[in-house]
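Table S7 (text form). Paired inputs.
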Amino acid sequence: MRVRAQEHQHKTDSTNNIVLYFKIDGAILDSTYMGNNESLKKLDELIKNELIIPNLDSITIVASSSPDGKEAYNLELSRKRAESVKAYITGKYPEIKKELVYARYTGENWVDFKRMIETDKNIPHRERLINIINSDRENGAKEWLIKTLANGESWRYIRKNFLPQLRTGAVCVIYYKREPVKEEKKEEPKKEEKIIPPQKSEPETPVIPLIISKPLFAMKTNLLYDVLSAVNLEIEIPIGKQWSVAAEGIFPWWKASRADWTMQLLSGHASVKYWLGDRDAKEVLTGWNIGLYGGVGKYDLQLFDKDGEQGDFFDAGLQAAYAHKIGKHFHMEYSLGVGYLQRDTKEYDKVNDTMYGDIKVFRFPWKVERKQWFGPTFAKVSLVWLLNKKTVKKEGGVK
């Protein structure tokens, strides 16, 4: 809801933007819903200004609804929302005469709907959506085309990111009486004066802040490693629409002396990925990608046997992966790496109950053996948690 205050002692207008939201199919003003509590506090501070009531000319409320559903139903819904805001103002502020408060309604808010699509470059099939909205079709036909475009991919994005913001309540325009400008008196012949009542400007169309979720980074864990109790964490950062970079750490450090079991591994990997396909039609970090990877590490492995191995390794190669959504903030990714693996290893035997305790004795001859491998070097089934940053975008820039 926009509140526009025109101070009576100034020639220019001062403007306050207050947005009120309604629940789906709701016409009851809920102060606890979304940011309504803070918005109503701002409205209260504005109306309780000592200059408001004595200089109040009128209040016009204009309500709207999201372009989702039958047009006639949405028109009636916006009427109820306008009346709800009017009832709130006249009920809470009895000092305001009811005949000074007007309720208007516009039905579906296609103006801001179009603006949101034009502003958000991440929405799938943006150009096709704009062409549909700009066409001369009826609103019902436009809505059907939008919902069925690309098997509903664009509509799912709209329903998640746009519709909650389009379910706003009203634009509340508060008009104030202007103080007459004092002029010097001049002696002139008296003439009949025509009294022309001041004209009121029409209330402006609602300008709703566009809240865009921009991905900051994704956190991943390879479930295959987790099953083996190999603790791991990967961070991936998207760069533009087509690229991303990632860094991974694997750091299990487990040891059970009497059970002849050791799994100690410290490794770090980095990768750069190129995401395939039409990125305007896909959400970030979903679909197919290919890339390069490389990493180093050290390890000590002894798996329920007297024999064990310690060493360092290096690997690098090509990788391919596919990722898809499983929830609002979660993805699954399946990846395979193929390349070169080099290990510098030393084998040992576990000897228990010596005068020094349980010890590991390297085998003779005591030398480091280099082992090389070309082929698959890793496989991942990763759970991905995407962290987003919400950005409020208004006319004039991002704030």
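Next pair, protein 2 of 2.
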Amino acid sequence: MNQKLPYIPLDVYLQHEETALLKSEYLNGTVVAMGGNNISHDGICNRLVASLLACLDEKGCEIVSRDVILYIKKPNRTRYPDVFIICGPPESLKRSRGATAYTNPCVIAKVLSLIVEHMTNLDQLPAQGFLFSAVPPKVAGFGTFAVRAFARVRD
């Protein structure tokens, strides 16, 4: 028996997420709990942030990692990317309460195990003006992880 999940408005999700002990992501009215990370995953993320800091030191860009929500207008979803970059003033959904969801990344990076990579649908990002780039697992530092990065295409 398939039971339809109730629709949850984005504002309700963001209010809950502000104080939630466990992170979840939002997809057009459905909330999905996220799994935890491990030391290998965190090591790759830390190396990625360190490398980006060296490149972006004086560029006016901000590197944001992990526990920050990114909102993608179409298909009305949130993500917790491992790393994203905002160049210029940060923009977010205008709200009076709840967690802040940023809307103007120029680069998004997600570290995925090779098993999860095949199960994760990131196909919507090219439609949002992002180009895909993959970093081979050996470059990322571990044989079982891959880094997927998306960079916004300028108009």
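The longest strand covers residues 145-152.
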